Amino acid sequence: MTDAFGPVRSPDTEEFAGAQDVQAKAAHPAASAFVLANAGSGKTKVLIDRVARLLLRRDDGRKGADPDSILCITYTKAAASEMLSRLFKTLGRWSVMEDEPLRFQLSRLEGRDPGAYKPDDLKAARALFAQALETPGGLRIETIHAFCARILRRFPLEAGVVPGFREMEEDEAAQLWHAARGAAVLEASSTEGAYLDVLALEGGHDGAMSALEALRSAGPAALVFAERHEDDFEAMDAALRDRLEAPEASSAELLELEMIEAMPEDSLRQAANVLSAGSKTDMATADKLLLVLDEPDAAKRYDLYCEVFFTGTGTPRKANPYTKDAAKASPLMESLFQVKDGEGSETRRMREVAGRLDRARAFERTSALLRVGLPALRAYQQAKDARGALDFDDLIEKTRVLLTGLEMSDWVLFKLDGGMAHVLLDEAQDTSPPQWSLLIALTDEFDAGQGIERSQDPRTLFVVGDAKQSIYSFQGADPSQLLEKFRVLQMRNAALHQHTMQMSFRSSPEILSFVDTVWNLAPPIDVAASTTPPATAEPVLHIARRANQPGLVELWPIQERRIEDETDAWSRPVNAMRETSPKAQLAQAVADAVRRMIDRREGVWKETSRDRWAMQPIQPQDVLILVRGRTGGLFDALISALKARDVPVAGADRLKLADHIGVQDCLNLMRFAALPSRDLTLAEILRGPFCGLVDDDSFLYPLASARKRESLWSRVQASPDPQVAACAAFLRALIDRASLPPFEFLSLVLDVPGADRQTGWEKLNARLGAPARDPVEALVAQALAYDS
User: How far apart are CA 339 and CA 327, in angstroms?
Assistant: First the structure.
């Protein structure tokens, strides 16, 4: 590591002064604000500062906001916990500070002269920590789902929910939904086969299950729609057809009518003859027309004919499908196919056909989805009702209806309005349309009606987000609505201020400029036509606070697959990642690079004291490796490669236990103990790490062949082979322990040495390697939690 870099301080530039000014304005407690914040720009600090300033005594001598009048909504439990921890840390420091340091801290926060703070002001600031702790229910810093649950528990009768309901975790909800969905598909296979075919075609390789998955988040609305039409599918179809403006004819009938009966075949053949004598462009169009005319199937004919008028993405072509010479040769070209500077009869007809066909198909898909999916939704709802539970979608939807419905919303909002004065919304880009609806309803009275009259201080709304950081429409979020909601809120309150926080306190100039270059040179993401430009078209600018701390961006070449040696193809597991795989090569290269950085003591910037940074030798915990997903092999290959090079690694941050072979081996022992007649399970145990009989020709084949109705377990018990006999003794011990709780069962298998003096952990490690330990430990922890 070079010693050229001593402790440095980030420069106090004009940009830094501007960033501080924006943060101070965004944190001002008297003004509503809408903030667009780049990653690392200090939005959490601004949120904490704003809450602290709301709690403080005002400079005009008035009392600060009551802790329970502030509602701060964030997106995850981790974010809420972090914000709450930082706020309590700030207030806790104030409670024990001497006068002068406290004056300095408050003056930095509020931008006032330290001498302006009187003893009563300092006393009030010190008391905030105790007030926050003593607030009934604690400070309102919570997730959107926790907020909804609290509102519904306060107004269960008005919301139509069971008093004392419980919140259902996503894993349990998914299990119930998959069971209901599977039963509905089985039922539809015998009664609604045609509709199931429509969904299967729409779902692609995942089939109808994939199409039905989209119905779950819209379940409450679908059930209300069905109830409104008294569960009459004919009435629902009529309403859908009217709403979609779909034709009476089915998509198949429409294609038959437009592509067979209404097709001007004579004119098209004349046009094809003219075009076939022209340029390459004309000849290509002629070939397409001839293929269309020779195709007897209406649907295939439509797909071929669309290539004349539409691009591969379905957008209308901007250039005529013929040349000027062809247009001069025959007036049919312009009258039929003109696209530019006019519209031919076939161009217009095909655009109209495409629109009607899209609406007809949308109607058919939606109708099929309701006929197959409504029974699944009802079964899912009944399962939740039987448990007295609400899932995350229920929490949002029922709170939205409670706050926006016509019957009880005025009463509920009046009761909530009396105690709520300040609402802060974090991670606004990940807020879904239903969540926006309930938040806007919640704050409507801040700017109109009796809400203003009931408030002595200005009531404020604070929103912060960044569309670039949206988690891929996670839980129905729509990042495109971020700026749209700002316009809605600004129409409601003209004094709403918009601020942009561009300075990053987290990264180096080289990395930030690389991000800006990639984003700004990329074409705008495809969006629907609109009067306003898409947010993705706006240039992005990140400004580095750590301007004098250089960084580095490396681009590695893509790993190519090497020629593989097939000599071990028969003995190698079919799902094992080969060392020649590009993913395996990449994992090895990353692990080698990390090992070299540590061995060379390469430097990384670390904060040594407030605002001071120094270059220090890199440690394993300084390295963060991001992957696109946990599945696919690269994730596990990276962990294995790092461990092989003695680089400490945290391991998997999230495990899908059933996907790990070591977990399946342990579960097989439990399955066999519960039911020894399961031949396939026993076969897997015999070949697995606990028995190790991997030579099929010597063990499994002689045991399993020619058994007729004899079970594999009886063959194993009767075998004279000493290795098989040792396995039989191990398996009998499993059966004897079948009545034990799961944790005790697994502990005896994994921790207690067997007749061969090896523990289960040692056997797993010998067969599957160190990466198997993490998921098996997670299984044991889950078994302990189950026993508890």
Answer: 12
3-state DSSP assignment of residue 544: strand
Rounded to whole angstroms, the Cα distance separating 415 from 318 reads 58
Distance CA(491)–CA(480), nearest Å, equals 18
Distance of alpha carbon 83 from alpha carbon 74, whole angstroms: 9
The tens digit of pLDDT for each residue in 47-85 reads: 999 999 888 866 555 678 888 788 898 878 888 888 888
pLDDT, one tens digit per residue, over 379-395 is: 999 999 999 999 888 89
DSSP secondary structure, 376-414, as one string: HHHHHHHHHHHHTEE-HHHHHHHHHHHHH-SSSHHHHHH
How confident is the model at residue 451, as a pLDDT?
Answer: 47
What is the pTM for the complete model shown?
0.69
Give yes or no for a contact between 634 and 642, defined as CB atoms under 8 angstroms apart: no
**Helix-then-strand count for the chain, H and E:** 35, 13
Whole-number CA gyration radius for the chain: 34
Q: At what angle do helices 392-404 and 144-154 cross, to 10 degrees?
A: 60
DSSP string, 269-321: HHHHHHHTTS-HHHHHHHHHHHHHHH---HHHHHHHHHHHHB-TTSPBPSS-S
Instruction: Give the C-alpha separation, 586 to 277, whole Å.
Output: 54
Helix (H, G, I), strand (E, B) or coil at 605: strand
Q: What's the pLDDT tens digit per position in 312-354? A: 778 888 888 888 888 888 888 888 988 887 888 999 999 999 9
User: Could you tell me what percentage of the chain is helix, strand and coil, using 3-state DSSP and rounding each to the nearest 5?
Assistant: 60, 5, 35
Q: What is the DSSP string of 513-535?
A: HHHHHHHHHSPPPP----SS--G
Q: Which helix (H) or strand (E) holds 71?
A: strand 70-74
